[in-house]
Amino acid sequence: MQNFHKGSLEVICGSMFSGKSEELIRRIRRVEFAQLPVQVFKHSLDNRKTIEHINAHSGYNYPAIAAENAEAIENFLLPESMVIAIDEIQFFDKSIIDICMKLITLGKRVIVAGLDLDFRGIPFGCMPDLLSRADSITKLKAVCNQCGADAHHTQRLVSGKPADFNDPLILVGAQECYQARCRNCFEITYNSLAQVQA
Ligand code: ZN
């Protein structure tokens, strides 16, 4: 028998094109079948198509509240919601961790999806912390754009060339493009990890 007094944290991670949003939507639909009240959020920075939906690359989408920061999520939360889903969680700053933990303490099921590694291959913002605290982790693989192997890296290309290690971290909707790459095909010039900002 399920214990509804304690919440839980599920983290869905992986590179771009690995199906994270699709998996998140799949879980939300199951919650709906179970007729549990659910609220769905995404970061307002992710404006691929609309700021009111989670957009999976496969074409699936799902209505979501676009929040500009962790506090905005807290303001939108309804006490009756049993399940809270957050897409593109890597874009939120580390205060999102406290909010997730607070929700779990209140008995909520928290399901989040996000990039675990940035375009440099460095763990992304709040993700390492969330992964450590998670009850369950699903790491999805994409297909390498170069060789067809399983891919867990996100390759950023600027004018067709691998991006520089020192490029800014977040450039959603800019001119560059992204590919999924395996470890062998991933191209980045590593500088000292000491240069990586926390
Ligand atoms: Zn490859």
Using brief descriptors, characterize the structure shown.
198 residues, 3-stranded antiparallel sheet, binds zinc ion, Rossmann fold, alpha/beta, globular, 6-stranded parallel sheet
Tell me, what's the shape? globular
Distance between the termini: 42 Å
The run of helices and strands is EHEEEEHEHEHEEEEEE
Number of helices, where a helix is a run of at least 4 consecutive DSSP H or I residues:
4
CATH architecture of the domain at 8-141: 3-Layer(aba) Sandwich
- Mind telling me the CATH class of the domain at 8-141? Alpha Beta
CATH topology heading of the domain at 8-141:
Rossmann fold
Which percent range fits the helix content? 10-25%
Strand content: 25-35%
Q: Provide the low-confidence segments as ranges.
A: none
Please identify the structural class as seen in this structure. alpha/beta
Overall pLDDT level: 88
Total strand segments: 13
Model description:
The chain has 198 residues and is of the alpha/beta class. It has a domain at 8-141: Rossmann fold. The chain has helices at residues 20-33, 70-76, 95-105, 127-133, and strands spanning 8-14, 38-43, 53-55, 61-63, 65-67, 83-87, 109-115, 136-140, 142-143, 150-151, 153-158, 161-162, 177-181. Strands 5-2-6-7-1-8 form a six-stranded parallel sheet, with helices on both faces. Strands 12-11-13 form a three-stranded antiparallel sheet, with no helix packed on it. The longest helix is centred in the N-terminal third of the chain and has 14 residues, at 20-33. The radius of gyration is 17 Å and the shape is globular. The site of zinc ion has 8 residues, from loops. Zinc ion binds next to loops.
